[in-house]
Amino acid sequence: MKERGLKKQTVINFLILCPIFLVFSLLLSRWWEGRGMDFGAYWQAGHMVLSGQDVYDRTQWIAVRELMGTALHSEPTFQYPLPLAIFFALLAWLPIQTAYTLWIFLTQVAVLTSIVILLDLYPAKSGYLELLAIAGIFFFRPMFSILNSGQILGLLLLLVSVSIRLFASGRWFSGGFVLAVLSLKPSVGFPILLLSGLWLLSRKQWKGIGGLLAGGLTLVLIGALVNPRWLIDYVNIGGYSFWKYYGVNPTLWGIVDKIFKIDSLSVAIGLVGVAAVFAMEAYLFWRNKSNVEAFPAFASIVPAALFVAPYLWHHDQILLTIPILFLLISISVKYGIGKAGIFMFGIVTVAFTRVTIAY
Length: 359
Hints:
Helices cover 76% and strands 0% of the residues. It is an all-alpha fold. It is globular, with a radius of gyration of 21 Å. The N and C termini lie far apart (50 Å).
């Protein structure tokens, strides 16, 4: 009876919040031009795919940018794997501002769905906990960043959440297949995938590892339908991005670079640091072996992956929703909903305080 009441409240939350999301999306699209945001680069890449152009060709990319007035602050070529451009070809059928509005709306729905999926792994949750989680995450500072910029992190958060749900229900191959889509943003996707592979290996879940490989191969083949050598083109661009942003982001690499300064030395020490983080995660997984379930595993994997990411932007931190919700549930179970509320208030306050100090 209680479970039915909670499901009813979840439906009511969606019915109330989705119209609010739509109004907010319309308002935000009136304040901001999608062509000047990160979304502009995604839309332009999708437009170029529809036009049969090469998103990795510098001359073509700049020509379209100047013609359409999109992605004006982007790099001279597309900085993501080609399958992402193919995905955005669907939105590129629409005028860019309309597509931007729709994407903001879909991002909010994706984040809300992620919260519901993760909380559903905790059968004893209360309606108050669900409302607290929704309010806390939507006021979490990175949430504003992904909405304003039109970033893809809301989609990635949903993919991780769906994967956790599939793993928890024993659908290992499907979970791995869905998780592989995170490679569309390699800077954070690859560390998550590698650490997830360690966890699956510790549990001897070969189907899950097979799903990761199958998902990755599927993405490669999808890109090959448009450009057979896209992977080579992208690898060349990816190396450039690492060195351009090396040491300027709040990750392990940034810390090492600030301390040691010398590139050759800092890179070597950075690699040692990454290996140490992976070793610690592997120790945690193998120490408990089959006892580490999907949700607590990813509550550990995501922060570790963001810490060792080659470069990281503030909007990437929306993926911390996963460990935040795990801690929220744990605190609620041990200390009650009141302490959980204080915890969530602290998370939101710290995020905004850091921005206030920085600016």
